[in-house]
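In this section we walk through a basic example: taking a raw amino acid sequence and producing a predicted 3D structure, encoded as discrete structure tokens. The instruction is simple. Fold the sequence below.
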Amino acid sequence: MEKTDVLVIGGSAAGIVAARTAKSFYPDKEVMVIRKERTVLVPCGIPYMFGTLKSSDKNVIPDAPLENAGVKIQIGEVEKIDTENKTCKTSDGKEISFEKLIIATGSTPANPGWLKGADLANVFLIPKDKEYLDGVREKLEGCKNIAAIGGGFIGVEVADELRKLGKNVTIVELLPHILSLAFDDEVAIQAEEALISRGINIKAGSGIKEILGDKSVSGVLLNNGEKMDVDAVILATGYRPNTAFAEKSGLGLNDMGFIRVDEYMRTEKSADIFAVGDCAEKRDFITGKKIGLMLASTACVEARLAGFNLYNIGFVKTHNGTIATFCTAIGDAAFGAAGITENQARKEGFDIVTGTYAGISKHPGTLPGTNKQIVKLIAIRESGLLLGGSVIGGPCIGEFINFMSIVIQNRMTVYSTLTAQIGTHPLLTGSPIVFPFSMALDELVKKLRGNI
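The resulting token sequence is shown next.
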């Protein structure tokens, strides 16, 4: 039997950060990562393998940072954990004993087994599997008409990348608009307009009923009766936590299939067994309700928390809940959101006000590369507490959204945020005189004071 002090199951974002943090803070402990994949892909970079990068080889996370830190790497798949004896067994019969265990097995694409025709040739999922995706990319080279089923981030980004290759792409989405779970309607509509301007077709408000074909795809039938001729289908209908082996090992799962954890990412089965990333349960920061959020950025925060606190609690989490923080780019346009949307806030019963301002990303606006920026903020009417917001603009909105997430996490109000000290520069930000975020706050203040 092989032994290690800290065993990390899973070698993607959460597993890498967990192992590196564990080794950094407990240098005398032996740390081992066991993973299925020989080559690990950058998860969020997967859509760009199809167009921009032109190869999966340009979307690889190297092993060197882990190896140079003294972390051992093994290739294998854990089938079961013996929580009592602190051992695990792999599919090839190996046994590994551990003092501390971090489960970071991530997620896998939801395979709609109910969908007739899902098993036809040229129907593809988007897993984090280099070999499989290399095969998908090769097969898609010979396809002209492609349907992307699902208008979430993966469906939208893969569709946009395939369009760059000259493919005729249609996004099929059951909800009224694409990206509806992340953005309010006005943002989702602008994202749709950006895609349409790039030559992508969108069929929203009607999901798929059946994939047509004999041995290979020939078309899709929508719920509204419309038929589309296609020679390939991308199923981007969401992901599920990879927790089947954890359930078999007696680790508690919630009703959504995620491993139950406490605020330090410890499982309810044992304080020596942690779960982080897509496989671990999460609660919304605003509502406290269980959510199925799966983001690499969130996974890395959880992995650091677990790695810090393996042998003693030295890092206390100052928040209780996960903030949905999203962004994506379609051509030169970028879209981001943090917190909850206006639609979500109203459904939860919050009495809210919103403030929106359209500004620009540089000053003066005649500078090259200036983008329009539209900022929308959401706050509770009585207290002025900020619940969420969104930004439409150019490439710089990624950090804008990160700033918004920090504001929400620190439970800042409209008033405290309005007096926050910021830095500006003509080439990098909007003018301090009409800084878009501050101007949207001004709009909120007017409403809160009854001036609008």
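Looking at the output, two observations stand out. The mean pLDDT is 95. The chain is about 25% helix and 25% strand. In the next section we compare this with other chains.
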